[in-house]
Amino acid sequence: MRIALVAGCPFPWPRGTPARILGMAQALHQAGHEVHVIAYPIGDLDQQLPFPVHRSLGLPFYRRTAPGADPLRLAWFLPALAATVARVVAWQRIEIVHAHHYEGLLAAWPAKRLHGVPVIYDAHTTLAGELPYYRLGVPRRCTTAVGRSLDKRLPKLADHIVATSQYIADELARDGMPTDRVTVVGNGIEDTLVAGPAPESRPDGTGERIVYAGNLAGYQGIDTLLEAFTLVAKARPGARLTLLTDSSFDRFAPLAERLGIQDRIDIEPPPPPQALGRRLAAASLLVNPRAECPGYPLKLLNYMAAGRPIVSFRDSARGLTQDQDAWLVDEPTPAALARGMLAVLDRPDRGASLGRSARERVVAELTWSRVVANLEGLYRRMVAHEPPLADHRSSSVGVTSGD
Fold first, then answer.
1. Same domain, 209 and 299
2. What does the alpha-carbon distance between residue 253 and residue 403 come to, in Å, rounded to a whole number?
3. How far apart are CA 131 and CA 313, in angstroms?
4. Is 370 exposed, middle or buried (0-12, 13-18, 19+ CB in 10 A)?
């Protein structure tokens, strides 16, 4: 099958949406499909990938990779991406387009109208839930209202929607999307990263280490993490906080200094994917301070694969189970997050059990080869113009996007 994945974001990039697209594209290629990725002119590694990446026209001075759109990207890059999608669909005789994020959907819509190719929209999140976290200079209630309005309208441009979590599927249904037009297909992790034994859990010799891996965008809850770590640091004098990130810490440095924890925080660049598991396995616990996420932060899959205990707010880890494969915190406050971290640190045996269960689950259910098996069935039905399955819930994946 000839499949085009449209990346409405920088690609590839080691986080969130780009990581989902890359994992999906590689698994589809390995399954024998002809895969084309169509992306903005922001990213690299094209020559190292086993499938072609078609780049839209760019501007030499624009290299922004931070999450979220901006006026220039919408005004210049999005129309250029739409033109590239239409050209590739025609030249490569694409049979189905899988568009990621609203930018990808908007870029794919002209090709749908011009060439009649089926378009799937991959819903990683909802704008109503995400827009309020960006600094747009308008009240939160306004950005939420705008996001909700777009959430009700834009998905209907697609022939079918893939939701990365049941929560998003339910939100789409609440906004009027028929359930038979939505399929839940969660994120996956590369099969090669979990093919061998679990990374050896080996303390790095610096005391108890709490690790966060991901970007430092506003929605990630880094302020909450720093305040929570302040409480943990008072109870555990040897504890340190490590942030594995390629984002600047500058905006949080004044808070860390005010809290008196700046000398107990280590900022390190994220290692390559092949080494990430070993780095995470050196942690005493892995933390996800994001208060809520409609999808499922990809970092949690990396955390699970590392086999170390996870502490997360419940509303951003909807596919995990309290005291089974993670320690989940209900109240989205620094004090509650600190209590969760201390509950794991105080019981190393509990932490080891949580880590083992999480690792077993990701190996058994959440590799990309298993996830793509669900997509292949959906693609075949779409290309053959067959009616969708009555049950829109994914049979293999109960969790899933976002970084």
1. yes
2. 22
3. 20
4. middle
Give me the sheet containing 53-55, strands edge to edge. Answer: 53-55, 34-39, 2-7, 96-100, 119-123, 160-163, 182-184
Contact 17, 112 (CB under 8 A): no
> In which domain, by residue range, is 378 found?
2-188+367-383
Q: Does position 258 have pLDDT exceeding 70, yes or no?
A: yes
Each residue's pLDDT tens digit, 8-35: 877 766 566 788 899 999 999 999 999 9
- Res. 396 pLDDT band, cuts 50 70 90: very low
The tally of CA atoms less than 13 A away on the side-chain side of residue 100 is 29
State how far the Cα of 385 lies from the Cα of 365, in Å rounded to an integer: 29
Task: Please tell me the predicted confidence (pLDDT) of residue 206.
Answer: 54
Asked if residues 285 and 309 have their Cβ atoms less than 8 Å apart, the reply is yes
Most confident of 201-205, 330-334, 389-393: 330-334
- 207 plus 350 within the same structural domain: yes
Say if residue 44 is in the same domain as residue 83.
yes
**Cα–Cα distance for residue pair 104/122, rounded to 1 Å:** 9
Examine the domain organization and report whether 59 and 163 are in the same domain. yes
Quickly list H helices, 220-297: 222-235, 253-259, 273-281
Q: Rounded CA gap, 345 and 241, in Å?
A: 13
Q: Which phi-psi region, left, alpha or beta, contains residue 306 (left: φ > 0; alpha: ψ -120 to 50)? A: alpha
Cα–Cα distance, 164 to 300 (Å, whole number): 14
Q: Which helix (H) or strand (E) holds 162?
A: strand 160-163
pTM of the model: 0.78
In the structure, what pLDDT confidence band is assigned to residue 399 with cuts at 50, 70 and 90?
very low
Cβ-in-10-Å burial (0-12, 13-18, 19+) of 59 comes to: exposed
Largest Cα span, the chain: 64
Question: What's the total number of domains in the chain?
Answer: 2
The tokens for 297 are 């932060």
End-to-end CA distance of the chain: 29
Residue whose token pair is 């005391």: 207
Interatomic CA distance for residues 311 and 133, integer angstroms: 22
